[in-house]
Design brief:
With about 425 residues, the chain is mainly alpha-helical. It has one domain: MFS general substrate transporter like domains (Growth Hormone, Chain: A), CATH 1.20.1250. Helices cover about 80% and strands about 0% of the residues. The protein contains 16 helices and no strands. Helix 2 packs antiparallel against helix 3 and helix 9 packs antiparallel against helix 16. The radius of gyration is 20 Å and the shape is globular.
Length: about 425
């Protein structure tokens, strides 16, 4: 029984090319998960408010919001390998520069915003290209599992990343500057791994159309598929709300629980361990009839986590809230991404996944308003509002999915390929 479960859950890793891509992505995601922790603390220390943390995220959000859709068009046209190598290289250099400026004492809030904006611009091209590359490497029948395993790697990185970042932040000899330099060094390992992959094919020049025309074609494709359209709207709403607790976490720890903002590392580590525990079984059911119900259950669990954190009166209660927040958000993204890729035609992988990147753009852009909101009405009140909204999304989304299923526009029994909606 266990052997069969392992074979089903990790089947995509039997593909040698996917295995290399997965390993390289694991190290890059480890750096990104560390960056989430370190960046929030650095921004809070530089500005002293939730608005400062949101301001840094604003640059990332705007760049991904504006450039993100075009990144998917490029991903569907060019050779994936050089695009990924250049993207990972630029992000690695950005981390090195940030670390050097911290150690030199020259980093300001404006410079931090500029550097994170550069990272956001690159990530707008990098993320859909990586997703499309997975679609080229693995057979169609393994695609949901391959996407789920990529999300599983992200969940594993959330375990190690915040713990490592928190440890470095709390160590005077390393601090935020040393943490950023370490994150940059991880990308050296990433590049060494990805260089071993064979060259990838570009879309023939004769099949290419103007960029705007291909972007419009991708938007029409999503609008005409009920399953993909529903999944994408859910992804945008949940991602925008689901990460807002991390914006207020440094100030919440200091102002409400009497803890240091650097304790964010321990909370995010517990959050990630809980997410990983749930991600393992979810990776094995993304191709079953339980996929859609599990996705809505994860949204509801995320809402529970927000409400628990809003009412937390001790650090231990905040840790308990993290045990719900982690599985709720990570589990939702794992299932949602697997269902989205499984229902998408290969020629549209990059464009569809880049449109989901708009969620990260909206999340980053709205971080500043939500930071201002938290400063105005209080962290607890903002967290409670987010929790209630997530419950509403789970309920409304579930009813919409059932209605589409009764109309025959949505298959809720598994990630089967969707047909364009008649409307």
């Amino acid at each position: 029984m266990i052997r069969r479960w392992l074979a089903t859950t990790f089947q995509s890793l039997e593909n040698p090319q996917y295995r290399l891509l997965w390993i390289g992505s694991l190290f890059s995601m480890l750096a990104f998960m560390m960056q989430w922790t370190v960046q929030a603390v650095v921004a809070f220390n530089l500005g002293g408010t939730n608005s400062a943390v949101g301001l840094v995220q604003l640059g990332v959000g705007l760049s991904m919001l504006i450039v993100g859709p075009f990144g998917g068009v490029i991903a569907d046209r060019v050779s994936k390998k050089p695009m990924v190598l250049w993207g990972q290289s630029i992000i690695g250099v950005t981390f090195f520069v940030t670390g050097a400026m911290i150690l030199a004492g020259t980093l300001t809030l404006v410079w931090l915003m500029v550097l994170t904006t550069i990272m956001g611009l690159v990530f707008a091209f990098l993320s859909p290209t990586l997703q499309a590359w997975i679609g080229e490497i693995v057979p169609r029948r393994m695609l949901p599992n391959a996407v789920a395993l990529s999300q599983l790697a992200a969940s594993g990185s959330r375990v190690v990343g915040p713990f490592a970042a928190g440890t470095m932040l709390a160590t005077a000899a390393i601090g935020a500057g040393g943490a950023y330099l370490f994150m940059g060094a991880l990308f050296v390992v990433v590049l060494a791994t990805l260089l071993r992959l064979p060259p990838t094919r570009a879309k023939p020049v004769g099949e290419r159309r103007p960029v705007l025309a291909e972007l419009a074609e991708g938007i029409r494709y999503v609008a005409g598929h009920s399953a993909i359209r529903t999944l994408m709207l859910l992804f945008m709403a949940v991602v925008v709300l689901g990460y807002m607790w991390q914006i207020v976490l440094p100030s919440f720890l200091e102002r409400h629980l009497g803890r240091s903002p650097t304790d964010i590392g321990l909370i995010l580590t517990v959050n990630a361990v809980a997410a990983l525990a749930v991600a393992l079984p979810l990776a094995g059911i993304v191709s079953t009839r339980w996929a859609w119900p599990a996705m809505f259950a994860c949204i509801a669990l995320l809402g529970v986590g927000f409400l628990l954190l809003a009412t937390a009166s001790s650090f231990e209660m905040a840790l308990l809230a993290a045990c719900a927040l982690g599985p709720g958000l990570s589990g939702f993204m794992l299932v949602n991404n697997a269902l989205t890729m499984a229902n998408t035609d290969p020629g549209y992988f990059g464009r569809v996944m880049s449109l989901t990147m708009l969620a990260w753009g909206f999340q980053g852009t709205l971080s500043l308003p939500f930071g201002i909101l938290a400063d105005t009405i209080g962290e607890r009140e903002m967290l409670a509002i987010m929790g209630v909204l997530l419950f509403g999304i789970a309920i409304v989304g579930g009813f919409v999915a059932l209605r589409l299923a009764r109309r025959g526009d949505l298959n809720i029994t598994g990630p089967q390929h969707a047909s364009p909606a008649s409307s």
